[in-house]
Design a protein that fits this description.
Elements: H1 12-23, E1 26-27, H2 39-49, H3 63-76, E2 86-89, H4 92-103, E3 109-114, H5 121-126, E4 130-135, H6 144-150, E5 155-161, H7 173-185, E6 190-194, H8 213-216, E7 219-224, H9 225-228, E8 237-240, H10 243-256, H11 262-271, H12 277-295, E9 301-302, E10 310-314, H13 323-334, E11 336-337, E12 339-340, E13 353-357, H14 362-373
Parallel strand pairs: 1-11, 3-4, 3-5, 5-6, 6-7
Antiparallel strand pairs: 2-8, 7-8, 9-10, 10-13, 12-13
Length: 375
């Protein structure tokens, strides 16, 4: 449980990236692709820039883009959605902040499942909410007994994330059935579902909360064009929510950013109908398998990777040093940057696990593997 002020120090991502740059290390810490985007998407941006779409977009997002998302989501995900249930945001992080600011009041409790992405807690603290941290099981899947014990009448939000960053695990249908039972028991509870890696799953399919009627009216879903289209620098995302929740979210959004990049909205609206997420999934699965096969020759132990573009590894056969110090040593002595998992826990739980990003070209991955296998 935490009611502390927000951190005043740089995030671990900034720290490790700066350290990697200073030592000329291969950066597998920060989650961004280093290979070219689809040429068709480049062309769509160029064409959009020539149109008169350079002024404020409607604050909920251009209707053409929301319509493209509706059709694309129904085609590739199989669940219904309306254009009124979609809000275009300045990245997934803004979607998360806006949702928390809209739905959480001072004194409300928000349950976070550790290890979790560091941007979940900050908006809770900023609105005077109380973050209740519940650790996932040793397999990084939900510990439902612990979650049920943490939820009460003061709980306003439960933030979930599948595919999961940093572990790469994917929730099963049985987990969502447990979730349905939970929301039925607590009428005030809303689910904030971070699904930014929804199209990057491998051994098991992604399941959205929107696939269940009982959850659809009680959930806000966050998605990312940055992750899906490999354009993290655009900071473009969207969220979907039922009308009662959406109205509250829009009330905050209009004063937070009002609207987002009009040219990129136009470009994505033209490109999205042609985009096949299966191709991206196959491409990342090939990179994941290449990376895991390369690590098999090292002293690192690969944990399961069912989704995302992150591989979690256990380094306990190499060192008993804490994971933060190990990552610093890895950069300085071996020229590879990673992220320690302890920073994703409120308790700073150290399991000798680090996270490596394989969203890189084959030359980068080959060079990194060569260094890692020498340790």
């Amino acid at each position: 449980m935490s009611t502390l002020s927000i951190p005043s120090t740089p995030s671990i991502f900034s720290v490790m990236t700066q350290l990697a740059n200073a030592h000329g290390a291969i950066n597998l810490a920060q989650g961004f692709p280093n290979f070219p985007i689809d040429q068709s998407l480049r062309d769509a941006v160029s064409e959009a820039a020539q149109r008169e779409v350079h002024q404020y977009a409607p604050y909920q997002g251009q209707l053409s883009l929301r319509t493209a998302i509706k059709h694309w989501t129904e085609q590739h995900n199989g669940y219904p959605i309306t254009t009124d249930e979609i809000l275009i945001t300045a990245g997934a992080t803004q979607a998360i902040f806006t949702t928390v600011q809209a739905l959480v009041c001072a004194g409300d409790e928000v349950v976070l499942l550790d290890p979790c992405y560091d941007c979940y807690e900050t908006p809770v603290l900023l609105v005077g909410g109380r973050s209740i941290h519940v650790e996932l099981g040793q397999d990084f899947l939900p510990d439902w007994q612990a979650i049920i014990s943490a939820v009460n009448e003061r709980t306003r939000l439960l933030i979930i994330n599948s595919p999961h960053n940093p572990s790469g695990r994917v929730w099963a249908e049985a987990d969502f059935l447990q979730l349905i039972d939970l929301v039925n028991r607590f009428p005030r509870l809303t689910i904030l579902s971070d699904e930014v890696y929804e199209y990057l799953t491998y051994s098991s399919a992604h399941i959205s909360v929107r696939a269940f009627e009982a959850l659809r009216t009680r959930s806000v879903v966050v998605s990312s064009f940055g992750k899906t289209l490999q354009v993290t620098g655009w900071k473009m995302g969207f969220l979907s929510a039922p009308a009662p929740l959406m109205q509250r979210i829009l009330n905050v959004h209009q004063y937070l950013v009002f609207s987002v990049n009009s040219v990129m909205q136009e470009a994505i609206s033209k490109y999205l109908p042609t985009f096949n997420p299966a191709l991206i999934r196959a491409e990342y699965e090939e990179r994941m398998r290449f990376f895991r096969q390369g690590l098999a020759a090292s002293r690192f132990k690969c944990l399961p990777c069912e989704g995302t573009y992150f591989q979690t590894v256990d380094y306990s056969q190499i060192s008993t040093e804490n994971d933060v110090d190990f990552c610093v040593w890895l950069i300085k002595e071996h020229g590879v940057a990673a992220i320690p998992l302890s920073v994703f826990y409120e308790s700073k739980k150290d399991l000798n696990h680090i996270r490596l990003c394989f969203a890189k070209d084959h030359e980068t991955l080959t060079n990194a593997l060569e260094k890692l296998c020498k340790i």
